[in-house]
Amino acid sequence: MDLARLVELNATYARVIDTDQLEEWPRLFLDPCLYKLTTAENVAKGHESGLIYADTRGMLEDRVSSLRKVNIYEGQRYRHVVGLPVVLGEAAGTADVETPFLLVRVMRDGTTDLFATGVYRDKVKPDMSGALRFAERVVICDGRRFDTLVAIPF
User: How far apart are CA 38 and CA 36, in angstroms?
Assistant: First the structure.
């Protein structure tokens, strides 16, 4: 798998979240797909549950729709710092990739905090047009505590 294309996919992913273009976020996934936000502790214990779990693009679209129309949460935005992806293996056109991230949260009043660190564990493959998409993105946060509602995807 071409490293430059993986870097571009991760940069696009971070950009659509950081610039509040959340309607573009589900388009970075294949359908069906898996998106899960969990903790390193849950992974170490073999727990499958996550703070956020979606297994279709439609579920991702519903999450965005609910953020826009239903959910009430304190105004905030993110700034991602994404490391270089490492291809851990490849089989049948799908790459297993791990990418470190750091997530800064900026609140409406300007307060800025380190919100989360961790790794993305992905299965990436090309769609019908050849563009890389996530078949699976498991967000594994190093910490297990979040001081606010996790509303926006990581």
Answer: 6
| Residue 116: closest CA among 84, 82, 88 | 82
* Nearest-angstrom CA–CA distance, 26 and 47: 25
Q: What is the mean pLDDT of the chain?
A: 93
Domains of the chain: 3-141 (3.10.450.50)
> Structure pTM?
0.93
- Residues with Cβ within 8 Å of 3's Cβ and at least 6 positions away in sequence, in order, are 84, 85, 87
